[in-house]
Give the backbone structure.
Amino acid sequence: MNLHPVTWLRNRFVRDAATLQVAGMINQASQLASAVALAFLLGAHGQGLYVSAISLQALFYFMISVGVAQATTSQIAAAAARDNEYKSSGWVTFMAKAVLLFGTLLLIGGALILPTVGERLYGSREVGVWAAWLCAQPLLELPRVVAMVSFQGTRRMFFLGQVENGHELVRFFLVILGATITGSAEGAIIGTLGASVIGSILASELYREARKDGGHPLPSARQIVARMREVKVRQGIRQGVRVAFLKNGQSLFGTVFPRLIIGVVAGVSWVTYFHIAHRIMMVPMMLALGVSRTLLPALGELAGKKDIDRFRTLFVKATLITGSLIAVCELLLLALVPWMVTLLFPEDYVRPVFTFAAILVIGYIPYGFGSTVESFYIVANRIKALLVITLIGAVITIPTNVWLILTVPYTGTAWGLSLYQSWTVVHLVYAAWFFRSVRRGGGVWGGAAASTAPEGGKEA
């Protein structure tokens, strides 16, 4: 393998991954900085209310989300590899229509349900009301989501990075501004919604610019609207729903449930400590952001060309290199946590944050090696295997998590999360078995991943 820097920079995968890597680093730094600022502006209790409102909205979101973004990105990439403009345009339109329908359902359901849920869980109807406000995000962010899927599927990673960084930097500014003006979590929530609007405006402008760059053609907003009636959501939703089962489960058990449970059993201040530890220990995971998001369209292109040898090589290299880097960085970062927390946060944060970080690192190391697994399952059309392995993991880990939560004060939820994330090892074992069993040139993509299309008619 040629390791010369010039050779690596000429590799499109490396360039794309590096672009998203830089964008991911900026986003992670911004999110950590906002956590630091809110700790001083709102205190542990106020910041805990803000995080709890976001987690409550996320709970409702992931309970009904159809998770079509990853599957749609893969299909756009496969169509672009074959220069099939009609099919890729159909998938972009499908994404817009799915977000529109889902966002409307989320907004109505959130307004009716979440205020009561907030009152039942936290004794605070206000937290539920804030969560209901956040249910407007999918509709406010529709242009941004469509643009991001289009950019990732056609491998316009520079535009994708600009959209993400622009939105995150605006979010940082408006959240801090809102918290400063109001002195409460309400201002931070309003700032979050304002960032959604501005992020969509920025994405729309960059989308128009991308249509002129000479890459794979993207449909205009007028073309997307014109094809809305023609494109049938049910034709593309099947794979998205399967992906959603895993993706939403990961988000619920890895992000949402821990915060909600800690808030109920230990208090909202401990939500803040967990949130900060999670933010810090997630920093090494940014090494996987650029790789995993570049890997999905890259593998999608190889699927379109039915090149199983390059598919396997790319997946193995990405998995081993990314996982090794993350493992080393996690261990180094853990040693620095006491110093970092002392430097950035109030003194009483140090002990609980370090305790959570030490527990979380146990799960994040194997989880880092699994950052490429989702792309493998989606593009190889092995969603059924993904669901089976995930269900087995749920049967084993969920009862154990419940026992840990009930028997280990304060930190039981973090121990359960580390156990859940360690199940990634089983997915890696399956991927290894898959590549050993597939014959050269076999019909790996003979199912829905290669044929399903939401065009509503024949290809042009």
Q: What stands out?
A: The chain is about 85% helix and 0% strand. Residues 71 and 378 are 7 Å apart (CA to CA). Residues 1-10, 445-453, 455-460 have pLDDT under 50 and may be disordered. The chain has one domain: 8-439.
